Amino acid sequence: MDDLAIRLGVQELIGAYAETIDEDRLEEWPDLFADPCRYLVISRSNHEAGMRQGVMYAASQGMMLDRVFSIRRANLFEPHRYRHVIGPIRFKGMDGAVACVHSHFIVVRVMGDGATSLFATGRYLDRIDTSGGAYRFQERLVVLDSDRIDTLLAIPL
Fold first, then answer.
1. Residues 62-88: pLDDT tens digits?
2. Which three-class secondary structure string do you get for the chain?
3. Class for domain 3-144, per CATH?
4. What is the pTM of this model?
5. What is the domain partition of the chain in residue ranges?
């Protein structure tokens, strides 16, 4: 597969990720990942210190489905949604059929009453499997710029 096709496939996956979350189609979120996988939300300082645990973690599609189930049925939190702005997408290289990609993000939180605020900024550090027909995240590290993490982090970033 040529470089342009890989770049377009990666861009499509990253766009689908944001759209799936922003449009509240969370049941589709795990399908964007390989199984097993690694999804981690972590502060920048903890990431730079080499810590491997963060505030949200999943190592399989099953763990992600549990998170979605909890959001829908068990967790109590004020209704809200996100809007992602992502870019630029930077290719760092290929490791066999795995694309190493970095991108920056801003996430705005929109509360049920319409109040809107900047919720999170940071970068995605991705390892994306390009070997199949549909690209999938093998690993998505969500590295937050701030050490201060809102207690209302229920929905994946």
1. 999 999 998 888 877 888 999 999 999
2. CCHHHHHHHHHHHHHHHHHHHHCCCHHHHHHHEEEEEEEEEEEHHHHHCCCCCCCEEECCHHHHHHHHHHHHHHCCCCCEEEEEEEEEEEEEEEECCEEEEEEEEEEEEEECCCCEEEEEEEEEEEEEECCCCCCEEEEEEEEECCCCCCCCCCCCC
3. alpha beta
4. 0.93
5. 3-144
